[in-house]
């Protein structure tokens, strides 16, 4: 396949190359150049398109799609205990499959090709991901509040063996320090490094979490993770809103991947993550949406834009630059190890095409600026993952109507039960 005459965003330099042909063989970009010759008849003219890598969504709970708009105006703990957990208790595995599919489609239509998820019935989430071809670290979310931690860990090993593969990697995701005991966290670390190799958790989402933990343990959550050994392994850490300067120095140089979840943090009134300091220390963070219950959608473009604005507000307009933020949104540093995050020869053909003839890209003073501040979902014409079209000429390659029907009817059933 050849994408002809494309405008390519080069994330190494922040420049745009025009009139370039992109050759894709199988799942990989195999050549980029001017007027590439090929016998390949499968080509499309991309003269008025900007081609970028797909976005990476570093933290979500795909299976929560049915809880969109269910209890919007609560603080985190009350919201979890009175609304979310009782609703989740009614979800069947099939409900989670359909909810995940809906969330994945939303991700896809905002240009996301890779996700990091945390949810209980990981097999059903992976099934949805595999059918749509969405890559990711599919985390089995676990906690041991009800004392059945051992059973959950056994189940994780089974899920890892049964459902994991190279593109849908099953990992272990202990929920947080306030829902997991110390001995359970130790077991999670041992199992999670043996199976999956990366762990995913929530870190310092709220001021309350920080204060309660420090009162009870006499140390910071980050130091605690360090003591347990969590800072020696790749750890995708959602939120990290209340990291202190000391915490940032502690994680510097560790395989610690913070996730900036600005919309969810704003909605729950949790604050703004220290993005300016992460950038200052050269830390490769990711953007994440969190679930639709606390966001309320899966739109990485919105996350990039809001996340950049709140960071500018907190750290100053000159500290936060478009290129730095775009690199994180695209996982330019390849912190997840999927060999994506750049339109380069040898990289996977995970690509978004933006319509440069849209109003949001006019005039074309700066395409970096347009992507960061004015682009919208409607400007996306094509999304490819592993060289396969998932969205083509603004048309979905999937049956959205069936997904909508299943999620709507199943949600009505649960609302009658709770
Ligand atoms: Zn979360």
Automatic annotation (TrEMBL):
Pfam families documented for this protein: Amidohydro_1
Query: Would I find Hydrolase among this entry's keywords?
Result: yes
CDD domains noted in UniProt: ATZ_TRZ_like
Alphabetical UniProt keywords:
Hydrolase
Q: Does the keyword Lipoprotein apply?
A: no
Amidohydrolase-related domain sequence ranges: 50-388
Q: Per its record, how is this protein called by name?
A: Amidohydrolase
Organism annotation? Peptoniphilus equinus
């Amino acid at each position: 396949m050849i994408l002809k005459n494309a405008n390519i965003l080069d994330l190494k330099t922040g420049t745009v190359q025009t009139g370039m042909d992109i050759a894709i063989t199988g799942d990989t970009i195999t050549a980029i150049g001017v007027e590439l010759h090929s016998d390949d008849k499968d080509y499309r003219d991309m003269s008025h398109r900007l081609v970028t890598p797909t976005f990476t969504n570093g933290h979500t709970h795909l299976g929560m799609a049915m809880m969109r708009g269910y209890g919007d105006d609560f603080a985190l703990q009350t919201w979890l205990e009175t609304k979310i957990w009782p609703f989740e208790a009614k979800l069947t595995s099939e409900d989670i499959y359909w909810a995940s599919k809906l969330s994945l489609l939303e991700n896809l239509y905002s240009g996301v090709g890779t996700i990091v998820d945390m949810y209980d019935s990981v097999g059903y989430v992976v099934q949805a991901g595999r059918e749509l071809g969405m890559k990711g670290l599919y985390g089995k979310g676990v906690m041991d509040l009800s004392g059945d931690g051992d059973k959950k860990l056994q189940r994780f090993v089974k899920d890892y063996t049964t459902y994991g593969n190279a593109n849908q990697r099953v990992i272990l995701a202990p929920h947080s320090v306030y829902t997991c005991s110390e001995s359970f966290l130790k077991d999670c670390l041992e199992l999670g490094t043996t199976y999956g190799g990366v762990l995913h958790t929530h870190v310092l989402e709220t001021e309350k979490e920080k204060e309660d933990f420090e009162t009870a343990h006499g140390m910071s959550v980050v130091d605690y993770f360090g003591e347990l050994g969590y800072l020696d392994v790749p750890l995708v850490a959602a939120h990290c809103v209340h990291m202190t300067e000391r915490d940032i120095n502690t994680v510097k140089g560790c395989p610690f991947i913070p996730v900036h979840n600005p919309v969810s943090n704003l909605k729950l009134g949790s604050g703004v993550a220290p993005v300016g300091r992460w950038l200052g220390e050269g830390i490769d963070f990711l953007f994440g949406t969190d679930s639709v219950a606390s966001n309320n959608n899966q739109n990485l473009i919105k996350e990039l834009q809001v996340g950049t604005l709140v960071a500018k507000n907190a750290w100053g307009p000159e500290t936060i630059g478009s290129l730095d933020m775009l690199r994180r949104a695209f996982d330019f540093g390849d912190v997840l190890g999927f060999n994506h995050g750049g339109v380069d020869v040898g990289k996977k053909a995970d690509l978004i095409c933006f319509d440069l003839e849209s109003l949001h890209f006019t005039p074309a003073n700066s395409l970096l600026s347009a992507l960061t501040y004015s682009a919208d979902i409607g400007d996306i014409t094509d999304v490819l993952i592993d060289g396969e079209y998932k969205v083509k000429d603004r048309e979905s390659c999937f049956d959205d109507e069936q997904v909508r029907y299943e999620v709507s009817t199943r949600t009505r059933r649960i609302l009658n039960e709770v």
